[in-house]
Structures are given as C-alpha cells and as structure tokens.
From TrEMBL:
This is 3-hydroxyacyl-CoA dehydrogenase NAD-binding domain-containing protein. Residues 201-281 form the 3-hydroxyacyl-CoA dehydrogenase C-terminal domain. In the central section; belongs to the 3-hydroxyacyl-CoA dehydrogenase family. Residues 17-197 form the 3-hydroxyacyl-CoA dehydrogenase NAD binding domain. It comes from Hamadaea flava.
Length: 294
C-alpha cells in the first residue's frame, strides 16, 4: 500500500551511490544504514580527515558489533566494510552520487552553504536530502539552482533501530524526488510518513514540548529525580533525562529555541534548560541522577 501522500512509485529513480555530508554520530549511522540496506557504495565527507576517520571508525566498530552479535555474517561484513569509504574531497567523492544526504550542524546558513557547494559538484539529477530535525526545508532550498530535487529525510537516533522516517516535501520538491525518497525509505525498512514543512515537523515538535514541560516542572521546584521518574507508569523505553542525554541537551535546546522563535507562547526557554546545557556534563551518572546539575 502506498503511504499517504506518496507519489506513484514508478517515478522513483534508482540510487547506485550515496554521499553523506558530515561524519558525526548521526551521519555515520546514516552511512551504515544506507550501505547495509541498499548495498551500494556510500561516501562520507567532513571538514577534515580526523572527523572522517572518526566516522569511519564508528562504522567499522558497529559492523564488528553486528558480527559479534551474530546479526551479520563475516562474508556480508567484509562486503559492507568495503562499501563505506570517506574523503575530505567532496568533488571526488560525490561527483557520481545519485543521492546526497546532509547531517551537518543544525544551522540554516551552514546547511545552505553545504548545498551551494554540493550543487557545483553533483549532476542536476542528483537527489539532495536533509536530515534537519527542525529547520525549514523550503528555506534551505531557496537559493538552489534545482530546488525541486531537495527533500527532507529526517531519521531518529539510534538510526539502526528507530523505525520512523519523516519525509518532508518542501515548496519546490517535485514528484520524482518525493517518489525516490519514499522508495528509499522503504528499502531502508523505515516507516515513512509525509509531514508538513513546519518548524520541527511532528516528532520533534512533540518531543520539544515534552522536554519543555519537564524543564518547567524543574523550574517550579520539582526535584530532578521526580521529574525524571514521574512518567515511569507509562513504560516509556527511556526516562525523560536519559532520552535528553541521547538527543544531547545542547541539540534539544537548539531545537527548543527554534520552536520558541516560531511559537513564543507555546515553547518557552527555561532556566533549567540553560543550566543543564551550560553544565555540559552527563545528567545521569551510573544510572543515578546527579542532583548537582540543577
Ligand atoms: N546503534 C545500533 N543499535 C542500537 C543502538 C545504537 N546506538 N542502541 C541500541 N541498539 C540496538 C541494540 O543493539 C539492541 O539490538 P539487539 O536486540 O538486536 O541486540 C536493540 O537496539 C535494543 O537495545 P538494548 O537492548 O540495548 O536497549 P533497549 O531495549 O533499552 O532499547 C533503545 C534501546 C532502542 C534506544 C530504546 O531505549 C528506545 O527506543 N529509546 C527511545 C529512543 C528515541 O526516542 N529516540 C528518538 C530521539 S529524538 C531524535 O533522534 C530526533 C532528533 O532529531 C533530535
């Protein structure tokens, strides 16, 4: 069954090579997922060799873990290892890519600069995807020569296990691009949903409000451990502060501020949030809550 809003599958283009801009945690997880599910070459790039090497090391370590867990045969692992490569030379790495996804710093200016550079390298047919978690995809594509091939492709951490994939149709995204995005999402074995190009889309819009209410409870004097454990009867897979740690307090705060600008009445910037980000240390130590943080 075709997902709601997805164009005719026959429009989808084949993807024989993938480029990943960025070699951070999200980008490295994406590189591994694409290589594993599509079985095509995947090239990662970043600003310097050190970052690229760190991303590649993550991919190799995850492959080794999968072998150790018996989820991947040695033969498949050997193939997978050769599929993911890295370079600082985007021109060499991406020239023949059919699909390029970026997972760089969550700042509109940074992402626009990345796309301007990539557009000089790739063919006008190459599909461009952004893993932005909160920014406007239409704004990101505004200065592209071919904005019709840009689409939002928003994954969740940990990429290997979270089933949801938010696909965002920007103002200029055409049906070929959208059909390719849905076809790829299916190959990646994700549950694809088409969401509006609105600040933080759907998942992060709700999650940001969720974190906001936890912070607000702490602002009002609720002890950290109470705010963290009050929802235990719901049986969520992670307690709120564990989830916050997984996302990264600074990343969550960044999204929170984007939401505050978009909807000042509904999304507040909280003093506890600022303190937790400024503390720059894990919120939870040995599974115990560290009350010294707030
Ligand atoms: N990479 C690869 N696999 C991972 C992984 C990772 N980082 N973390 C966990 N897994 C795998 C484990 O290997 C395990 O697989 P097997 O059963 O095959 O061995 C499986 O996931 C379950 O893991 P665990 O048994 O260790 O732990 P768990 O049952 O507690 O599950 C969890 C861990 C899947 C992370 C679960 O706690 C969960 O779903 N948490 C919520 C995560 C969430 O909400 N993420 C969204 C964050 S928001 C975001 O990402 C959006 C944004 O833009 C900021």
């Amino acid at each position: 069954k075709r997902p709601a809003g997805a164009p005719d599958r026959s429009l989808a283009r084949d993807v024989g090579k993938v480029g990943v801009v960025g070699a951070g945690l999200m980008a490295s997880q994406l590189a591994l997922l694409f290589a594993r599910r599509l079985e095509v070459p995947v090239v990662i790039t970043d600003l310097d060799q050190e970052r690229v090497d760190k991303g590649l090391a993550y991919v190799q370590a995850e492959i080794a873990k999968s072998v150790a867990k018996g989820r991947l045969t040695e033969l498949k692992a050997a193939k997978l290892r050769t599929l993911v490569t890295g370079t600082v030379d985007k021109a060499a790495g991406f020239a023949d890519a059919d699909f390029v996804i970026e997972a760089v710093f969550e700042e509109l200016g940074v992402k626009k600069k990345v796309w301007a550079e990539i557009e000089e390298i790739v063919s006008p047919e190459t599909i461009l995807a952004t893993n932005t978690s909160s920014l406007s995809v239409s704004a990101m594509g505004a200065d592209l020569k071919h904005p019709e091939r840009l689409v939002g492709f928003h994954f969740f951490n940990p990429v290997a296990v979270m089933p949801l994939l938010e696909i965002i149709r920007a103002e200029h995204t055409n049906d070929v691009t959208l059909a390719t995005a849905f076809a790829l999402g299916k190959q990646l074995k994700k549950s694809c949903v088409l969401v509006k190009d609105a600040p933080a889309f759907v998942f992060n819009r709700i999650l940001t409000r969720f974190f906001g209410e936890i912070y607000n409870a702490i602002d009002l004097g609720t002890p950290l451990e109470v705010a963290n454990t009050a929802l235990d009867p719901l049986g969520l897979p992670m307690r709120p502060l564990e989830l916050l740690q997984l996302v990264g307090p600074a990343v969550a705060a960044h999204v929170g501020k984007t939401m505050h600008v978009a909807y000042p009445e509904r999304f507040k910037v909280s003093p506890s949030m600022e303190k937790i980000v400024a503390a720059g240390q894990p919120l939870l130590v040995d599974d115990e809550i560290n009350p010294a943080v707030v």
